[in-house]
Amino acid sequence: MTKNCSLTSFLKSSFAAITLAITVTGTATAEDAQVIELTQVNCQFVESENDINHGFKSAQKSDCEAINDTSGAERLTNSKTLELKPGKYIFRVKNENVEYPLGFYLRGESLLDKARLPKVSGGGLELGVTKDYEITLKNGEYVYSCPLNSTLDYKLVVSDS
């Protein structure tokens, strides 16, 4: 009987500690995180391409794949690399004019970085919808994109310097 009571007490205290940890870490808010706003249009993020909306037309993912096959390398060379300090961020992503659902995916750039760096992803970005994606970034090289809209893999560098 004593062992059962001890186990029950242990489990209750462990559960309380886990609940406390979840409550303390919580989610980032605009007050304690920097907000990065990104606008998705057909086949691209506008801010990432130096605030240029190329006016691509797309009814589906494969349209963007074809566009990126012809213009992607040059556009990526001319794109803006986001340079941030380590810390909490909210990536506020808007689907401005894409008729099909979009998402957002931020991850380490290399295979090793994909394994060691934090990542965030999600979908549900219907036409006109804006969603927040919260993450605490560590030093490293990242890329972000929308796999559903087949955007380019735009570069993000996080460094203390």
Please provide a brief summary of the model.
The chain has 3 helices and 9 strands; from the N terminus they run αββαβββαββββ. With 161 residues, it is an alpha+beta fold.
Protein model, in words:
The longest helix has 24 residues, at 2-25. The chain is 30% helix and 34% strand. The N and C termini lie far apart (59 Å). It is built from three helices and nine strands. β8 (140-145) and β9 (154-158) form a beta hairpin. It has helices spanning 2-25, 61-78, 111-116, and strands spanning 34-41, 44-45, 82-84, 87-95, 102-108, 120-125, 130-137, 140-145, 154-158. The radius of gyration is 20 Å and the shape is globular. The protein has a single domain (30-158), classed as Cupredoxins -  blue copper proteins (Immunoglobulin-like, Sandwich). With 161 residues, the protein is an alpha+beta fold.
Could you name the key traits of this structure?
161 residues, alpha+beta, Immunoglobulin-like, five-stranded mixed sheet, four-stranded mixed sheet, 34% strand, disordered N terminus
